[in-house]
Amino acid sequence: MRKFNFPTLLKVMALIIVIGAVIYSFKNQRPDQKKIIIPAQSVHYFKDPSLSLDKISLKIIYFIPKDRSASINQSWKELIEPAVKDLQSFHKIQFDNRSVINYEIFPDPVIGLLEAIDYDTQDTNRGNPYALSAITDELQNRFFDPAGDFYKGNFAKTESEDFSVIYIIYQGVGASGIQGSALLSLSYFINAEFSGYKESLFYHEFAHTLGMPDRFDEESHIYTSFDILGNGKIRPLANAYIDFETKKEMGF
Amino acid sequence: MTSILKEINEYFFGQSRFRLKLTVFLMAVALVPLLLLGVVSIYAININRRFEVAALETQLTNQKIKQIESFLNDIIEALRFKVASQEPRISLGEQNFLLSNLMNAFPSLEEVSFVAVLPENNYGKETFRISRDKLFSCGVIKDAEGEKLENCLSWSPDNLDDPQSLRNFQLAKEFLAAKVGKDYIGPMIKTSVGPRFIAAVPFKNEKDEIIGVIAAKIFLNPVVRLVEQSTLGLKGYVFVTDKDGSVIASSAPLFKALGYQLKKIDIVSSVLFGAKRTGLDSADAYANIFGDKVIGAGDIVKKTGWAVIAEWPEDDAFAPSLRLRNQIIYFSGALAAVIFLAATFAANRVVRPIKELVEGTKIIGEGKFDYKIDIKTKDELKDLGDSFNEMSKSLKKLAELREEFIFVAAHELRTPVTAIKGYLSMILEGTVGKISKKTAEFLKKIQASNDRLVQLVQDLLQVARSEAGRLKIALSPQKINESVFQVFDELRPLADDRNIIFEYSRPAKELVMADNDRLKEVLINLIGNAIKYNKNDGKIIVSHKVENNFLVTAIADTGIGFKPEEMPRLFEKFWRAENEATRAQTGTGLGLFIVKELVEKMGGKIWVESKWQIGATFYFSLPIAK
After folding, report:
1. CB 3.0 to 4.6 Å from B559: which of B173, B233, B270, B534, for a disulfide?
2. Containing domain of residue B590, as a range?
3. Contact A233 B189 (CB under 8 A)
4. Are residues B481 and B606 in the same domain?
5. Domain for residue B496, yes or no?
6. ipTM for the complex?
7. Structure pTM?
8. Which residues is B556 bridged to in the sheet?
């Protein structure tokens, strides 16, 4: 039998202690910066998980029918931009930072090729959806077609994974929103009667571009919710919210 | 540095196995209980701390749940009041009074509405509303015609989107629940100025009939504040989620900004499903959403279905026990080091006298009887040392007697054997008359034996003189070359008889400090041996080299050499190698001993190198004369 060598044993023990100490200190290292390790929860278009809303590209254009070019509001940008920022912030809160809006305001007013009467429907009480459709078609040709007179590479450019929205600030009447585009009259930003909740109206129409429906019963004319898609659109944006009934159809 | 390490290594882990065994034994006796106590203490501290952590977390979550429930109860109970009337309706003035009082009493109320329930009283319609924002309040005035609403429009499809209009609650969840007598507490809603929720309760008259619904929008800021103010150690935190897992409030800023739905996290989902987490289960130790190891506990707010979770990072939660554990480890380590040193010291104290005894016995065994073993332990070991010293004295006496006897015997023998030698020579030379051949033959054998006896007596006398210190050595510079040549001449006849040739490869130029006669004696002895034990036709080579102020003389032969096991005994008294060659030669076994004594007395050293059957080379060194 091999003789037991105590000095070697003590040296081996010392080595084991040193290795143990190294492993212990390595295992107990703490990360300097906190990172969330649970998987990100994606947000999508209302009832359509194939359309991601993780990143939204919002293009805002001030649009004036040809016959109203004389009444261009020179302060339009100052009126709109704070509301856009509020929209961005409200959206971030409602979607738990999971959906980010990057916006760009086209720097110049855009004069329409037609007159107001050609864009508007007769009854603008329903939000003037015809104007939205007509103007959107015109802007598509003029802004996003390389042959268009307002085509500018950077403004037309949208990242492939971004959900693209065009928001038309209309020098006319109307408030309307469909998938990917919305329209809101500039008058909402000017008239004092809307001052308490113009940002809510602005977001309400934007919400439609993401597929969120009105919380309103068409037959009885009764709001089914008091959130921003219901009666809450006429409350200050600070008090507004999106009902979980709506959000649960968007990845919540 | 290396030498210091070597010394330390030698001191602690030297070759003394007894010392090592004793050290290990002493360490084991002292350390094993210490280690056991340390391990048990650390285990107990950890377990105890885990209980403490769990208790603190549970205490905190329970406290927060109570505070949240208290807040909710206060509000809900305040909304639930009865009107002291048996009428199926109350006037706008009474509604104004009740709702105004509510708003004044509870700053957390953002908005409160009275909604009619009975069909004849505008079923499902808001009849009065007070909001913190006056723009949205519908006040009441009284005039001669009675009371009427001010700033408010009654509900109609035409003024749906007018902020001053009263609302229709017919399809609202809160109304549908409260109108049938149930309290409604809605989910948390997020707004830019903080979370809030909607609540509704039935409004009854004295007959206990539900005549209306009180619906309110309530700020959760008080809940946020009381959660944010929570503390749990340095890094622990509490967070509250609604029943969908959205964070309502948290005491950790990072968590608050997160806004994530946490329903997928085990502790959140299990609490939302009604399981109480105590912080004691193995599943209550997990990695939080940042990957930090935490201890978690949580419970549900039954009224709302919200989850209140406390998480405490282990590094902070267990910091006190870690500190204690480290202190125990450091203390144990220090104590172990002290024990190790003390055990080594104690073992050395025990072993040192034993080693002294061992060394002493070795020295005495070599015949140095003057050596005194000095042990100062004042115990049995000292007695043992003293006994050894006594024994040494006795041995010295015996040795002196023996030497004296040998000296006297040898001295007394020398005269008769010399006389015998002389007379034998004379007889053989025919001085006393003619002798027969046979007689001559016998006398020659007697002469040869007598010669051996003479040699033995001379050797014994020399040894005795040397050991008695009577051997006189007179050192002076000597030409060793001359001595070598003289010895060659003297021994050449013997060498020629066996056809052995001498070779003197490098006559030395240096003078050596030696006694000329003794030097010659050394050379005669060594060269004589080289002849005696050489093969016929062999060779003897004498050479010199200088090493550190010493002249080393080498005498190499081509004889039978020595076996490795014989080498250590070559210079012992009366020892002769046992083989055919030695048996064929006469010898006393004292020659090499005498040579060694002589060389050493002249300040030199002697040693040998040899290969069995190939030859041997004897080296001796002598100091070079300056």
Report:
1. B534
2. 472-623
3. no
4. yes
5. yes
6. 0.78
7. 0.64
8. B541, B617
